[in-house]
Amino acid sequence: MISKLQAAALAAVVTLPLALSGTAQAGATFDGVKQKGYVQCGVNLGLYGFSAPDDKGKWTGLDVDVCRAVAAAMFGDAEKVKYTPLSAQQRLPALQSGEVDLLARNTTRTLTRDTANGLNFAPTNYYDGQGFMVASKLGLKSAKQLNGATICVLPGTTTEQNVADFFRANKMNFKPVVIEKNEELHKAFFAGRCDALTSDASQLAAIRAAETANPNDYLILPELISKEPLSPAIRQGDEEWTNLVTWAFYAMVQAEEKGITAQTVDAAMTSPDPDVKRLLGVTAGNGKALGVEENWAYNIVKQVGNYGESYERNVGSGSKLKMPRGQNALHSEGGLMYAPPLK
Amino acid sequence: MSKDNPSQPSAAWAASYEEEPSQAGVPPSPGGMTALKPFGWAKDNLFNSRLNTVLTLICLAILWFAVPPVVSWVLLDATWTGSSEACREAVGACWSVIVVKHRLIFFGTYPFDEQWRPFLACGLFVAMLGVSGVRAFWRPWLVGAWALVLVGMGVLMWGGVLGLTHVPNDKWGGLPITLMLSVFAIALAFPLSILLALGRQSSLPAIRSICVGFIELMRGVPLVSVLFMASVMFPLFLPEGVTIDKLLRALAGLTLFTAAYLAEAVRGGLQAIPRGQYEAADALGLGYWQKTWLIVLPQALRIVIPPIVNQFISCFKDTSLVTIVGLYDLLTAATVATTDPEWRPFFAEVYVFAGLVFWIFCFSMSRYSQWLERMANRYNRR
User: Which chain A residues contact residue B233 at CB under 8 A?
Assistant: First the structure.
């Protein structure tokens, strides 16, 4: 998160060279990527589940899978990615200067970034937000049942404000246990000094995985009380590239909706469903429109998997984080993941 | 102040410093003969006044309370192998996190099956540094050997020839990055700093003001901002599509920064040379470069070995700041290793380990500089 002043300064610096050069060649990034033969992808230095090297030094994570999906769509090979680890300060200038073609680095989509900073955003690949973690034995199902609870919270942050707002809006009371240091705060919660711990949901999952012997003893409630839509970003001025990144992600969501996984995608090639036929390029058209091979989506699903597979593998039940799908479930299952028709 | 026999021939001087370096020329202290009478030594040095007695007792008490817990945490209660569950139950340090993560810490994102290559490259590099430190090897062939080793390292790290797969340098990480950044930054900054220091003393106003301006600019800003400019702002001013490698940019930033500080250390040496030396050189009819190369620099650099090595060590540690520009140096890789939720409670062990690696290199540099200093000054003890 950067302050407004930083954002303004950054925007000024970032837009100056663009204004001077005065050109935004349409298709420059798309053609550039195609020519050099790989996607230069800006990622986090190390955020477990989103982008981090595993024990063998191989990049893995939900954000990394976006990079791989785009490479699979473009080149038919998900490995044709070069990763540029970026610090929080570097990420926007790195995208602006052309150092990276795509920024998949847990970046929250905001109006300022979309406009003044000269970025475009692909669809949100992870809806994060502030949530509550409680002990499973309390038997709670919803944050709305927290009336009268004691809640462990860091002081002086928007986190504290958000909790107060949420309880006021729902006409409930709570007793804050305010502790200055993160480690102390977690200790207090696990020692049972409060009923719930609040922070960003992805953070809660990481805390749970790190500090409990059995993660199933604790539950992250499904309500998120703040908006942190983490989205891949691209430079403004190349619609072809924006289209490809956008639809590469939608293809993953669409594949999940149609129940096509990396294992079943070959069988799905013979499916009679017209939507599946269009998705996998059996019925031609989508590939030509995007400027790539017709089997682009097949390659994504075959090599990266559908969105659900990627989610479970990196942050969900198949990972150490064990985050529930929550808002990141398909729209048909009460979440926010919704792919427009691929036709 | 020396008590040594003045009639001792100078060849014996050279021999004696190598045999007992720390004792040479130092008169024995009143409480000497330590090995023979430890009790007497303690009485003379630790309990010879009321204040000293109290201080000694306080120190002993601190050691009594501090050492056993540290020893039991580090060694006795520590978990050396096994899972993170075993670590969670143990009270001591969890060294198995190092066992699990050491390859990530040392080599970052370098392809796993190829990690023998950076290992070999680092080994070659360190061995070559060691060889270069030994006086007997200071021969012209050393330059050739260095060229060979650097080419060999390049082949190992990049590959692409001799059947090695190509590994682009955006996949390099860990110890090779730390070693290469620091050694190349030092090697490039040192000559640059001598030029800057000479330029700062130049009688030509243009050269002098450029050097002064550069040194003061670099010394006036933190290294973080230099790195930030080099890797974030600089690319914005390049034409679209032109990018300079990130590693190279960070190296350039680090080199310029170190050169500015080194230049001031070198200047201190230049100013310590008596005026008579310059005048004598002039009287011999030596030109500027002859005078500088033969008379001034050998004396000046000898004086400033301690501050120069100080700067080298500081440069080595400064490389850990490249994490803010997204380079995977040793410390960044260590930090990333601690983000794994399974091992996150044991971040202290990972940092202790990274600190140990840094300490080994810095301590070796420091010891070497002490040896170098003694050797350089053996003919002109003061």
Answer: 13, 93
